[in-house]
Design goal:
alpha/beta; 254 residues; globular; 6 strands; 6-stranded parallel β-sheet; 48% helix
């Protein structure tokens, strides 16, 4: 019986992939990898078990993105709120994140770009993230933003702070800056500066909220909420998200 289900699933997945309108697919996909803990709890495991299962599902996702021509992927692995977790639990989560980031860098297939308040992270985690960015800096192809210690409000605050420092170094007064300030000044100092904003944001686990993910950049994004917990997120779920996106008429206004 399972073999029949697997065959039917494979046929459906291939049909879905063939039916995607390739001219109307997202350039930048953001993914909130949610549900690792609940997935683990259902199986009698701890948070680290769920985080590892989620980490193991990242490389398949990047491969699926490559297959359809996505140019940028932003993965939210750890929020600034998560940094307040109990010491041993946080240590385990960071160790798993360090491991998956190092493995992705060793593949040499993707350009990894760590984003977040890296100064809030432990020294070793920050070192692993920065080394992954350096190692893959000249890699062509898919850009993968690794959001660790990330919060949307923190990003905007950091962008404004960076902008103020830059203009102060140029001798621009606060009054002068107030006269010329526009959204592009802030955009130029975001963690994702120079990249297209996300066209599609996917959140797994059934939660229907951003939770602070790419607050500035997602002003015109389309959203797709998937019931599956992140470790159970399959290629067919990804293809359904793309189909939903492709079928929408995007309106860039109120």
């Amino acid at each position: 019986m399972r073999g029949v289900r697997d065959l039917a699933y494979g046929l459906y997945e291939r049909r879905l992939a063939r039916s995607l309108p390739t001219a109307n697919l997202p350039r930048h996909v953001g993914v909130i990898l949610d549900g690792n803990r609940r997935w683990a709890k259902l199986r009698g495991g701890d948070a680290a078990h769920g985080t590892q299962a989620g980490a193991d599902n990242i490389e398949p996702l990047l491969t699926w993105c490559e297959e359809v021509g996505v140019e940028v992927v932003t993965l939210w692995l750890l929020s600034t709120d998560n940094l307040t977790a109990r010491g041993s639990e946080l240590d385990s989560l960071l160790a798993i994140i360090e491991g998956v980031v190092a493995d992705l860098a060793d593949r040499g297939r993707w350009r990894l770009n760590p984003v977040g308040a890296l100064d809030l992270l432990p020294d070793h985690t920050r070192k692993v993230l920065k080394e992954a960015g350096e190692l893959t800096r000249d890699t062509s192809g898919l850009i993968v933003n690794i959001a660790v210690g990330y919060g949307g409000r923190q990003e905007i605050a950091d962008a404004v702070r960076s902008m103020l420092h830059e203009h102060a170094a140029q001798g621009v007064s606060i009054e002068e800056l107030a006269q010329i300030l526009d959204v592009e000044h802030i955009s130029a100092h975001l963690y994702t500066k120079g990249q297209p904003d996300p066209d599609l944001v996917i959140r797994t686990s059934g939660e229907q909220r951003l939770g602070g993910f790419l607050l500035w950049q997602s002003a015109h994004s389309e959203f797709y909420f998937c019931e599956a917990y992140w470790p159970d997120f399959r290629r067919v779920d990804f293809l359904r998200a793309l189909r939903s996106y492709a079928e929408r008429e995007r309106r860039f206004g109120a």
